[in-house]
């Protein structure tokens, strides 16, 4: 409290107020000019910001004089907030951007400037804001960025001695704290009770956390918004360009709009379109225009780095770096123009880009590559481990929202190599390969990896990744091409095939071989034996007597002649007691222990023997870390992977892994022998077109009659044949194809009737049950391949069904529908002019 005023105090106050009254209009003018400048700053750096300025009223000045007279003897020249401004932005990143502008363009009174966040202890939360005490500097305004003239009086220390203003920069949540808590708690004439101080601190903590979250979301959305390929198809991007060009025709000087067109064109790889649009705005001074124009020019003329066009592109990038030194992307893009021309210069620029933005993984990856190549070792990794770990998080953030793919995974894979995490590296590379729509993407990653070959011995997992990339490239190339032939030669050189060639069909059986799950895996014996009972082809597995591998050995022994089994083992353990010599052949890799080298080797051998990866099937039951890699490598190479998810461990984890669960060729199979049989045995007979369509129509007619009482409105499967969607017509046709396979299982075949009116054929109840189980398994695999998943309720639009379960778990009413369907087989065949008879009769 101020106490009683005496005559001296009153006189001092009168003189101070009169002095302020004389400069009142100067402070008013100060506020008006400051507001115009801050609004133009906000328009560039924080478009949604709230800008406020004010000058103290005479009454407010008089009151502050009285309350602060003990501290200030010459208030008119000592007060720093007689004019004030406030910029309220959305995120902490915008606070930093606006603060950076203020520091660069105003004279700062450092003694009185306060960053409140810096005075809070690590354990404290509270009012966090930046308070600058500023003066206008001569010769700064106006400029290219801010078109505001500063009146001479605001630059004259003699005529306007205390020409200072307080500018606060805060987020909107900090502003809420200031208005609702700070003024109440810290400007109150009484001490706040401890209970309420705790409440204030709790709110402040939540607001601080929310601020950080908003910043992350905004940055993520900004990145996503400019990553057009993440949410637009190529056709949509081209349509968007046409739309924006129409709008640009009405506002030809709009550099921001032109930049959007240019970025879309770059995403499409249409370098000339980007050049044509951006060149018209090169004098706008916009850094992003210069950067993207430079990128487009250098990309278009990358094969002629000495050309005038390439040099002009590099010049644009250099100007972009000069205009905005904080743009890591511009500096990294400039660095790319020097790669393989002057690698030392490129490395220096990548290092600079990394220092500007340590969270940007692209410059860090290139800096590491060039450093390892220059020094011949990976010693630099230990110095940059924290940065590499941060880069992994950045890559993961990009991948989570579908931007910068597949590069985010390619970079992640390399960073994991540097960090000594080979399994994580292999998985990231596998995902990148799966997402690579074109061969050049994988080839680029392969070339990049090979630059590290000089330090391969220091990078655990290097050889795994190199083999996987080579296989991924082979999966995208046709053997008839020159590149395809070159890749096949490289892979053939790595092959262990020195005996009989692998012949299709090929099924890889992977899963639990650990002693801890030995008993559980034995429970799958009958399932495996029944699923492969009629299989003829090659089975590949682990080659030991343990777990799933042992079941494959047993199956091979039981079906010798029909099934050829090949086991893959590391050389160091290939003579041990657990080697299963019931296998037709054991292949020994150079490994010293079980690792992904074995699955990579069998894919190498499969390709060397001319088998298309897409025709190979992988059946997964349970499994540990190596099986986890087997499943993911197979998906990356385009093989079909059927997982018995309820078997646990890595099989269960795979179908719950968001990165892989949506893979088109990943099927979650129930533990049902007929479903597994349908999965591993697909691709049999296909009927002649005429008989196929006739049978398909009869099957559909029978289905509609069977389901008539259960008909659901608007169910497309109940439409007349002429109106039936093509996908459902094909489904009926595939069921027709499968009739012959079903009949063979119970000893029947089909022929044209010897007499026009043959006696109707009827299956026994046991035969109906067998056929119904087979049909249910076939139907499950068909639905899974069409993208259906298990759901508690049937959802045709969402492709969910509660009936994608084993026969054992299928409701009785649905079993009866399958039985009714197979009972109709003789009738359908008769309508198509065929009859059932015993085989060899």
Structural account:
The protein is of the alpha/beta class and 841 residues long. 54% of the residues lie in helices and 10% in strands. The chain is built from 34 helices and 17 strands. The strands form 4 sheets. It has a 7-stranded parallel β-sheet with strand order 10-9-8-7-11-12-13, with helices on both faces. Helix 27 (625-637) links the parallel strand 11 and strand 12. It is elongated, with a radius of gyration of 37 Å. It starts with 6 loop residues before the first helix and ends with a strand. The model is unreliable at 116-127 (pLDDT under 50).
Instruction: Sketch the major β-sheet.
Output: 7 strands, parallel
- Structural class based on helices, strands and sheet pairing: alpha/beta
Strand order of the largest sheet: 10-9-8-7-11-12-13
Radius of gyration computed on alpha carbons: 37 Å
- Helix content bin: 40-55%
On the 0 to 100 scale, the average pLDDT is 87
Strand content: 5-15%
State the separation between the terminal residues, measured CA to CA. 116 Å
What are the segments in which pLDDT stays under 50 over at least 5 consecutive residues?
116-127
Q: What multimeric state do the chains show?
A: single chain
The gross shape turns out to be elongated
What is the count of DSSP helices, taking H or I runs of 4+ residues? 34
Number of strands: 17
SSE blueprint and pairings:
Layout (H helix, E strand, L loop, with lengths): L6 H39 L4 E6 L2 H10 L7 H4 L4 E7 L2 H14 E3 L5 E2 H4 L10 E7 L28 E7 H15 L7 H33 L7 H17 L4 H14 L2 H9 L7 H14 L7 H16 L4 H9 L6 H14 L4 H15 L4 H4 L1 H16 L6 H12 L3 H14 L3 H12 L11 H15 L5 H13 L11 E6 L6 H5 L2 H7 L5 E5 L5 H12 L4 E8 L14 E5 L7 H12 L8 E5 L3 H13 L2 E5 L4 H8 L9 E3 L4 H9 L7 H19 L18 H20 L2 E4 L13 H21 L3 E2 L9 E2 L10 H12 L1 H7 L3 E4 L3
Parallel strand pairs: 2-6, 7-8, 7-11, 8-9, 9-10, 11-12, 12-13, 15-16
Antiparallel strand pairs: 1-2, 3-5, 4-5, 5-6, 14-17
Helix pairs in contact: 1-2, 6-7, 8-9, 9-10, 9-11, 10-11, 11-12, 11-13, 12-13, 13-14, 14-15, 17-18, 18-19, 19-21, 19-27, 20-21, 21-22, 21-26, 22-26, 24-29, 29-32, 30-31, 30-34, 31-32, 32-33
């Amino acid at each position: 409290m101020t106490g009683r005023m005496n005559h001296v105090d009153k006189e001092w106050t009168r003189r101070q107020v009169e002095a302020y009254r004389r400069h009142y209009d100067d402070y008013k003018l100060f506020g008006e000019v400051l507001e115009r400048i801050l609004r133009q700053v906000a328009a560039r750096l924080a478009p949604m910001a709230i800008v406020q300025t004010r000058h103290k009223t005479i009454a407010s000045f008089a009151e502050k004089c009285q309350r602060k007279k003990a501290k200030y003897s010459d208030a008119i020249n000592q007060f720093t907030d007689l004019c004030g401004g406030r910029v309220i932005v959305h995120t902490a990143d915008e606070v930093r951007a606006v603060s950076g502008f203020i520091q660069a363009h105003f004279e700062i009174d450092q003694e009185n400037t306060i960053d409140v966040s810096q005075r809070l202890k690590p354990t404290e939360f509270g009012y966090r804001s930046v308070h600058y005490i500023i003066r206008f500097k001569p010769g700064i305004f106006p400029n290219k960025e801010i078109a505001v003239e500063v009146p001479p009086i605001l630059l004259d220390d003699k005529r306007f001695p205390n020409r200072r203003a307080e500018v606060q920069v805060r987020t909107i949540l900090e502003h809420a704290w200031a208005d609702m808590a700070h003024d109440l708690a810290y400007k109150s004439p009484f001490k706040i009770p401890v209970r309420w101080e705790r409440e204030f601190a709790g709110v402040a903590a939540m607001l601080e956390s929310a601020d950080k979250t908003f910043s992350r979301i905004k940055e993520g959305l900004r990145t996503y918004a400019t990553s057009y390929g993440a949410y637009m198809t190529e056709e949509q991007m081209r349509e968007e360009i046409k739309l924006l060009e129409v709008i640009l025709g009405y506002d030809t000087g709009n550099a921001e709009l032109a930049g959007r067109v240019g970025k879309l064109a770059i995403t499409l790889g249409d370098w000339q379109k980007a050049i044509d649009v951006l060149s018209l705005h090169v004098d706008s001074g916009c850094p992003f225009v210069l950067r993207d124009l430079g990128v487009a020019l250098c990309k278009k003329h990358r094969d002629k780095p000495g050309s005038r066009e390439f040099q002009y592109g590099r010049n644009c990038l250099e100007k972009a770096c000069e205009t905005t030194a904080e743009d890591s992307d511009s500096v990294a893009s400039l660095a790319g123009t020097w790669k393989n021309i002057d690698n030392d210069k490129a490395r220096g620029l990548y290092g600079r880009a990394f220092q500007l933005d340590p969270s940007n993984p692209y410059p860090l990856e290139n800096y590491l590559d060039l450093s390892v190549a220059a020094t011949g070792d990976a010693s630099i990794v230990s110095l940059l481990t924290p940065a590499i770990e941060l880069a992994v998080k950045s890559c993961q953030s990009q991948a989570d929202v579908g931007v910068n793919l597949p590069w985010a995974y390619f970079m992640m894979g390399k960073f994991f190599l540097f960090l000594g995490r080979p399994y994580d590296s292999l998985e990231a590379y596998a995902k990148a390969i799966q997402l690579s729509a074109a061969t050049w993407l994988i080839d680029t990653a392969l070339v990049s990896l090979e630059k590290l070959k000089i330090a391969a011995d220091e990078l655990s997992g290097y050889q795994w990744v190199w083999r996987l990339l080579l296989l991924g490239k082979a999966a995208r190339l046709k053997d008839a091409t020159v590149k395809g032939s070159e890749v096949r030669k490289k892979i053939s050189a790595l092959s262990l095939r020195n005996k009989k060639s692998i012949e299709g069909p090929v099924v890889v059986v992977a899963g639990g071989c650990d002693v801890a799950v030995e008993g559980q895996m034995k429970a799958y014996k009958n399932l495996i034996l029944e699923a492969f009972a009629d299989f003829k082809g090659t089975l590949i597995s682990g080659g030991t007597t343990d777990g799933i591998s042992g079941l494959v050995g047993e199956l091979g022994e039981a079906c010798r002649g029909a099934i050829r089994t090949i086991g893959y083992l590391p050389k160091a353990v290939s003579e041990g007691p657990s080697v299963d010599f019931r296998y037709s052949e054991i292949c020994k890799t150079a490994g010293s222990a079980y690792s992904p080298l074995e699955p990579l080797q069998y894919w190498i051998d499969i390709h060397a023997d001319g088998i298309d990866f897409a025709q190979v099937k992988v059946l997964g039951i349970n499994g540990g870390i190596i099986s986890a890699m087997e499943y993911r490598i197979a998906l990356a190479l385009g093989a079909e992977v059927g997982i018995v998810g309820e078997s646990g461990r890595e099989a269960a984890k795979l179908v719950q892994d968001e990165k892989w669960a949506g893979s088109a060729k990943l099927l979650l199979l129930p533990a049902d022998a007929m479903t597994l049989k349908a999965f591993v045995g697909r691709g049999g007979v296909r009927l002649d077109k005429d008989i196929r369509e006739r049978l398909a129509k009869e099957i559909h007619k029978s289905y509609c009659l069977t389901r008539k009482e259960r008909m659901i409105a608007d169910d497309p499967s109940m439409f007349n044949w002429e109106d039936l969607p093509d996908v459902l017509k094909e489904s009926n046709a595939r069921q027709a194809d499968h009739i012959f396979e079903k009949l063979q299982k119970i000893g029947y075949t089909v022929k044209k009737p010897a007499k026009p009116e043959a006696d109707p054929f009827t299956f026994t109840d046991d035969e109906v049950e067998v056929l119904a189980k087979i049909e249910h398994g076939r139907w499950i695999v068909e639905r899974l391949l069409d993208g259906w998943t298990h759901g508690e309720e049937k959802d045709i639009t969402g492709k969910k069904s509660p009936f994608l379960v084993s026969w054992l778990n299928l409701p009785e009413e649905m079993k009866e529908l399958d039985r009714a369907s197979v009972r109709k087989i003789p009738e359908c065949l008769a309508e198509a002019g065929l009859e059932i008879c015993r085989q060899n009769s």
